[in-house]
Amino acid sequence: MYYAKPLARLIGELEKLPGIGPKSAQRLAFHLLSVPREEAQMLADAIVQVKESIRLCRECFNFTDRELCEICSDPRRERSVICIVAEVRDLIAIEKTGHFRGLYHVLHGVIAPMEGIGPEQLKIRELLERLKSGTVKEVILAFNPTVEGDATAMYLAGLLRPLVPEVTQVAHGLPIGGDMDYADQATLIQAIAGRRKVT
Fold it and tell me: What is the pLDDT of residues 36-52, one digit of tens each?
């Protein structure tokens, strides 16, 4: 009613993006209307190119434009350690720290029965296939501290313990610069349970 049909369609499509509500969609649409046509075309081309060229790495299921992603094809990576993450964005967050030099395995989700996601919908079978070689000495489970993340970690730990010498999980607890007075009970429990020796 308020917008010309092409503009209403654009706003409707933008609203489908995660984290974009009606107001943000309207703001983005109006911004796109105000930029030069070439700039809008560059955005459209980038979207189409991503859809046409990005695929999953055949080894770890990271996003890549080649058969193997940059991490899996890097000979300097420690191949005996695999960090299992739910999503590619989790892999990127860990990579940004610059402290992990092993490999990854992206499940593309977590076990969430309420959403109809079971182990068979995740890249678990492929993970077990990777571990058959016997070269992996440690698997790190790196999931968000949610009910689904914890359930996925517990399920995988049961599967992986017979296959690899060491199954570990990232620590959860107080953030750097955090205030204990504002932390919830679950966070404090995790922080105490995940304590380590002071060196």
Answer: 999 999 999 999 999 99
φ and ψ at 118, to 5 degrees?
A: -110, 180
Q: Are 70 and 88 in contact (CB under 8 A)?
A: no
The Cα 159–Cα 172 span in angstroms is 22
pTM of the predicted structure, to 2 decimals: 0.85
Q: For residues 196 and 55, what is the distance between their CA atoms, to the nearest angstrom?
A: 40
Q: Read off the pLDDT of residues 183-194 as tens digits, 9 standing for 90 and up.
A: 788 888 877 777
Tokens of 139: 């698997």
Structure tokens at 174: 């107080």
CA-based torsion, 105, 108, 114, 116: positive or negative: negative
Q: What whole-number distance in Å separates Cα of residue 130 and Cα of residue 137?
A: 12
- For residue 114, the one-letter residue type is M
Q: Phi and psi for 190 in degrees, rounded to 5?
A: -65, -40
> Domains along the chain?
9-53 (1.10.8.420), 77-173 (3.40.1360.10)
